[in-house]
Amino acid sequence: MEKPSGTPSRLLVRRYGTVSRLSTGEGIGTVKDGEAATGRAASRPKRSDARRNEKALLDAAAAVFVRSGVEVPVRDIAAEAGVGTATIYRHFPTRADLIIGVYRHQVEACAEAGPALLASGPTPYAALAAWIDLFVDFLVTKHGLAAVLQSDNAGFETLHAYFLDRLVPVCSDLLAAATASGEIHTDVEAYALMRGVGNLCIGAETPSPHYDARELVRVLIAGLRGTG
């Protein structure tokens, strides 16, 4: 669950008192300590249209980060989203804001999908398998952010704990439901399962026609149905 090949070199973080300056390919941005943990300082509640616009920007940024890395020019993200660069900067004044926003957006989408899949899926096991597939998609984005998230910015350090706090309980609930339904027979813990999935995805960092991480993950999940 760490670094894929082709991950861009991490951003340089320079600290000036209570302000961190992030040097990127597009100049210097600033983010105050503490703001990074939430992606920005506290602000007024956003209108529904503003939230939709921000979600569209985050989806576009995530897609571009996966393809080209986190140091991609902002104009490429704007083009993906179909907006001007000024719109990107209005929502995310610094690259740090954008990176944190993408990470948190992806975590929240994965967390919210768990209960929804459990409620709408044909069986709890099907919900678990579908959620793990979404988790694999999330890991692809997470790998793209790996280098910068390992910088010495204190705000970035809190994101891993946030990731665990939000996603481990979701996976645990799905495992418990599939176990209660009699579809799986295992005492594997959610964190161990997620770690195993992550390790299989790491193997995909070196492209090979003989290595299909997603197929191996499906084999792993199917193995949970073994008789106890």
Describe this structure as you would to a colleague:
The chain is mostly helical and 228 residues long. It has helices at 35-38, 48-68, 74-81, 85-91, 95-120, 124-149, 154-180, 190-202, 213-223; strands at 12-16, 19-24, 27-32. A hairpin with a 2-residue loop joins strand 2 and strand 3 (27-32).
What secondary-structure arrangement, pairings included, does this model have?
Blueprint (H helix, E strand, L loop, with lengths): L11 E5 L2 E6 L2 E6 L2 H4 L9 H21 L5 H8 L3 H7 L3 H26 L3 H26 L4 H27 L9 H13 L10 H11 L5
Antiparallel strand pairs: 1-2, 2-3
Helix pairs in contact: 2-3, 2-5, 2-6, 5-6, 5-7, 6-7, 6-8, 6-9, 8-9
In short:
The protein is mostly helical and 228 residues long. The chain has helices spanning 35-38, 48-68, 74-81, 85-91, 95-120, 124-149, 154-180, 190-202, 213-223, and strands at 12-16, 19-24, 27-32.
